[in-house]
Amino acid sequence: MCRTTNLLLTLISISIFPFFTNGALQPQHQHAHGGGCNPDERATLLSFKKGITSNDANILTSWQGQDCCRWRGVSCSNRTGHVIKLHLRNPNVALDTYGEYDVCGGASALFGEISPSLLSLKHLEHMDLSMNCLLGTNSQIPHLLGSMGNLRYLNLSGIPFTGRVPPHLGNLSKLQYLDLGQDGDYSDMYSTDITWLTKLAFLKFLGMSGVNLSGIVDWPQTLNMIPPLRVIDLSYCLLDSANQSLAHLNLTKLEKLDLSYNDFEHSLASGWFWKATSLKYLDLGQNSLFGQFPDMLGNMTYLQVLDISQNWNGDMMMTGNLKNL
Ligand SMILES: *[C@@H]1O[C@H](CO)[C@@H](O)[C@H](O)[C@H]1NC(C)=O
Ligand SMILES: *[C@@H]1O[C@H](CO)[C@@H](O)[C@H](O)[C@H]1NC(C)=O
Ligand SMILES: *[C@@H]1O[C@H](CO)[C@@H](O)[C@H](O)[C@H]1NC(C)=O
Ligand SMILES: *[C@@H]1O[C@H](CO)[C@@H](O)[C@H](O)[C@H]1NC(C)=O
Ligand SMILES: *[C@@H]1O[C@H](CO)[C@@H](O)[C@H](O)[C@H]1NC(C)=O
Ligand SMILES: *[C@@H]1O[C@H](CO)[C@@H](O)[C@H](O)[C@H]1NC(C)=O
Ligand SMILES: *[C@@H]1O[C@H](CO)[C@@H](O)[C@H](O)[C@H]1NC(C)=O
């Protein structure tokens, strides 16, 4: 009886434990290696803190004392003690008078620069600086980020950068999540060549909403060379067309595709995406697509959400097989 209770308690604590330790801003502080953070990594974090010029939200006030693994937004490996995660997402983004995000207009954001000193965090796997005003002096994505070769997750979404998206990000060969999205708006970021993305062989999530990709003709072919992709958000990218033909679709895991607000202006049926029968979510809104639905729509049996608003469709759709829609 007593032994059963003990076992039960052990099982319960094992299953509950991760929920307390993996919380977004909770420090992970149970290293098997003896505790305390690496002094070099601590110095690096303090030097990053120096690059933050305004901090009304006091997010970084906990950044003092010896053990940087206890600082807010910092997580260390429980095995090696190295800093592996930096989660400094701003959860309280300000809105402008039109109700749009105004990342640099609110007091809760971090202001300043993404200090190049971060490169010293060699073990960093996860970096989320989203929704902060970390524009530095030239307002561009620092190409040095391409040297943080251990990153699996990089979220810079909402930071209103301008200029070219650095192809150096293609050096992040372990990356699984890349979010540069500007959430529902056009931005002053652009790229004229996205072939560097094909070097990201493990990429599951690609968010480039708002990045001007005008003139890039072969974007579907490029994405088709990254088979692990599950989510693609290329809304507001000024893409010219989506009627490229793909001989073979490698994107067999694709679940979510957002191509809204691109103004393709060609026939709906000629879209390459109808081959992606694994899709659960397809947003084609605001694209001036015209004509009939292709028969292939009937094979998209996993589809739960289909947005075709603001296009010129001349016929009714047959949704007979689409039992999840
Ligand atoms: C330690 O980290 C590993 C990998 O991140 C994880 O699987 C494991 O559950 C962690 N152990 C504890 C006690 O948190
Ligand atoms: C990136 O951050 C934004 C805003 O903080 C969030 O909405 C989005 O889901 C994140 N992206 C990923 C891939 O987690
Ligand atoms: C990173 O990528 C850029 C452009 O793709 C390249 O010129 C550079 O040599 C790469 N740097 C490293 C350290 O691999
Ligand atoms: C988008 O980029 C193209 C060329 O890359 C440029 O001609 C065009 O002006 C840009 N559009 C906007 C709205 O910035
Ligand atoms: C994806 O499919 C194309 C054919 O459309 C093929 O040439 C290419 O090698 C495939 N790429 C990968 C990474 O599987
Ligand atoms: C694709 O659509 C564009 C218009 O966006 C059109 O100019 C072009 O001829 C179309 N190409 C094919 C192969 O249908
Ligand atoms: C739908 O799928 C079936 C079975 O895989 C296939 O025979 C048929 O050709 C597909 N229809 C279209 C329009 O691709």
UniProtKB/TrEMBL annotation:
Pfam families xref list: LRR_1 (PF00560), LRR_8 (PF13855), LRRNT_2 (PF08263)
Q: Which domain of life is it from?
A: Eukaryota
Record's subcellular location:
Membrane
GO CC terms of this entry? membrane
- Lineage of source species: Eukaryota, Viridiplantae, Streptophyta, Embryophyta, Tracheophyta
Q: What is its main location?
A: membrane
Q: What is this protein called?
A: Leucine-rich repeat-containing N-terminal plant-type domain-containing protein
Q: Which UniProt keywords apply?
A: Glycoprotein, Leucine-rich repeat, Membrane, Repeat, Signal, Transmembrane, Transmembrane helix
Q: Which InterPro entries match?
A: Leu-rich_rpt, LRR_dom_sf, LRR_N_plant-typ, RLP23-like
Listed PANTHER family: LEUCINE-RICH REPEAT-CONTAINING N-TERMINAL PLANT-TYPE DOMAIN-CONTAINING PROTEIN, LRR RECEPTOR-LIKE KINASE
Q: Which residues form the signal peptide?
A: 1-23
